[in-house]
Amino acid sequence: MSGVQVTEQTIRELENVAQLAVELAKKAGADDAEVVVRDGSELTAKIRLGEPELVQEAGSRALGLRVIKGGRRAVTYTSDLRREALEALCTESVALAELAEPDEFSMPPDPSLLAKTFPELDLYDPKVAEVDAAWALRQAIAGEAAARKHDARVTNSEGATWSRVLGASAFATSGGFSGGYRGSYASLVVEPLCDDMTDPKNPKKRNGYWWTASRFLDKLEAAEAVGIEATRRTVATLGSRKVETQECAIVFDPEVARSIVGTIFSVANGSAFWRKSSYLVGKEGELVASALMTIIDDPLIPRAPGSRPFDGDGLPTRKNFVINKGVLSPVLCDVYSARKLGRESTGSSGRGVGGNPGPTTSNLIMQAGTMKRDELLRSTGKGLYVTSLMGFGFNPVTGDFSRGAQGFWIEGGELTYPVSEVTIAANFDQILKRIDAVADDLELRSSTAAPTFRVSHMTLAGTSR
Question: Over 50: is that where the pLDDT of 1 sits?
Fold first, then answer.
């Protein structure tokens, strides 16, 4: 069975429910009310060794309500959208708000700042909804089969998974905002396994993966190509070894580079700033990274994974710099964190159905450089090309960074042999300022993206000399 199409009528229905809940909350005694309603469906088809392992299709519809009364707020949610259920929810929510502590910063935005028009961002592909479980299974089977066939050293598999998400979201407030939009997203991931018998006394399993994703079905890579690339990346790790502890260049593959960019946002947002839980507090307008680094958050890119026409406070979304040629821009804020910091929102609010709004990203992108990836590698005398990071060794207050890593040793400008069981470490401030080369291989498959880039030197902990 294929998915149910998300239509413009779906959006109107959700907007009507959101507006009704706002009216009911006001009738129940709320000074202000904000309502988000989401309708979504997911299809997941997973196979392993050519056989179906999971086929799951599910839909959900839920409403989140935030009420404010006398400067006090409460957040509740429900999946029961009948009028009588909403009336009861609104009454209970106002009662909960009356028990809360007042918070002068929690008031809704000035109605004059709310979005009045919405850009058309082309975020929905009807073809994604037409995919049924049988077709999704065939794609997963084709991807895994190509992975297993491509190299005899692939001896097992964690499987292949084809998935899609369809959804619509509506938001309404007592300040007069009402809007909604729909979106689609599809992906395929293939995960081969190899037996590494380099040391017969200590055999190991080596796993790898590759994936493709887009809002539009015809933008996905062919399943066979995904499987072959997954195998290429997996067998390349056979014979992994440690290297000696040393200071050396570290080159981050795009898959890892985007996690570094995500870490930057975790310490460059209004919430982290007002809580003083970031080493970047007080450094806006200062050089905090190499001049080669520019990071933008752009919610207005047509068809992109993280695009959206308005934010979680109902404000217009806009392109914001996070870092501009190494200089830290004013951090991304929602209305609440902006008020805590004595400034204006950057239109960067997000909220879940059951939570308060907070600063978030849309399409968080480190801008590409001008070098080809191969040129960047050739200019690297020796170092580690990192393809995977493990662990969570980052202190946002001090900036200390230490993560387990694996990848490939660079010698004489070439990838020579696979490396694993090492750790890379430096202060995050040093990491960003030591970026001395950025490649042009940027791809926007996920809402956070980055090209290959090089850090001139970090501490690599491996074996003792």
Answer: no
